[in-house]
Description:
By secondary structure, the protein is α/β, with parallel strands linked by helices. It has 2 domains: 2-55; 100-341, Zn-dependent exopeptidases (Aminopeptidase, 3-Layer(aba) Sandwich), CATH 3.40.630.40. It is 37% helix and 11% strand. The protein contains 9 helices and 9 strands. It has helices spanning 2-24, 30-39, 44-55, 100-105, 118-122, 165-178, 198-212, 265-282, 317-341, and strands at residues 108-109, 137-140, 183-185, 218-225, 239-241, 244-246, 249-253, 290-292, 306-312. The strands form 2 sheets. It has a 7-stranded mixed β-sheet, with helices on both faces. Helix 1 (2-24) packs across helix 3 and helix 6 (165-178) packs parallel to helix 9. The chain is globular, with a radius of gyration of 25 Å.
Amino acid sequence: MHTRHSFQRLNRWILVGAVLLRLITEPGIFTPGLRALHKLRENATFARAMLYLEFGCGSDYPTAAPEPGQLTVKRPAEPQPEAVAVLAPVKPAQPLVFTARDAESLHIAGSCSYTVDKSELLNRPLAGDFSGSGPKILIVHTHASEAYADSGAEDFHTDDTDYNVVRVGTEIAQVFEENDIEVLHDTSINDAAGYNDAYSRMADTIAGYLEQYPSIQMVLDVHRDAYEAPDGSAGGNVVTVDGEESAQVMLVMGTDEGGQYHPNWQDNLSCALKTQAVLQRDYPELCRDLILRCSRYNQNQTPCSMLVEVGASGNTLPQALTAARYFAAAVCKVIQNESSEQ
């Protein structure tokens, strides 16, 4: 008799639990529901029983914390700006094929007088080897103190890495990690010792990383642009991407026209054009014209170096973070497409 009553009480509790489970997983309170389920981690048998009663299947619900090294995504330190949408992994379902229409959609501006064959560069194999182990991308900030309109800094510069372009680099790195691309991020304030000679110092920093990690194939130098709006205020174009406010991105690519040794500048430009073409297809308003310059901007050190301006001083940091994630997703598509063809 005692066993029968115990069994009935258990069934009542199971029924109550099933009802509660349905309530906490209803739309609008889904996130609190998941938090409640996490609290059942110490009683995994009960959690599995509830899920079985509700959904007719078992659960792989974890019974212990993951082993060290399982979680590789780095999260930015507090304080954090307004959250932005998380993009799903971006591996292309089909190989990327670049057409004459893609080439025509790409506009190149800047002071360089070279004429380039955009179609040939779009269809040139990526020069970098992104296979094997070891970090493949290095993110740096030659002018790390560059900040945005909501930084609180009168001159749009701050050493606070939660509010300058270092934070944007962290966002880009996170997208790479989400797509299983190993990345290093140099967060030092490179321009603290002087703005004008920052590129010379960064050249030594990049060389040091390449010596320690010869697997690096791409250096991304992440900046924030600055220009004046028609009314004299700080400029910063805003576009809407998938319902979100976003800043624009602009790729600045170097050449050897200024006399600096840079034999691989067209390989770098090929990578940049592929990235811009991917963005143009999906989000045509996100990109400004690619700028081709006579200087090399340390892009001679790897076969897939790029300098990217993410937003401008008149944009907010959340707008820049949105742009950064879409830019990084396009880079992932280019890399993963080339890797799948090797």
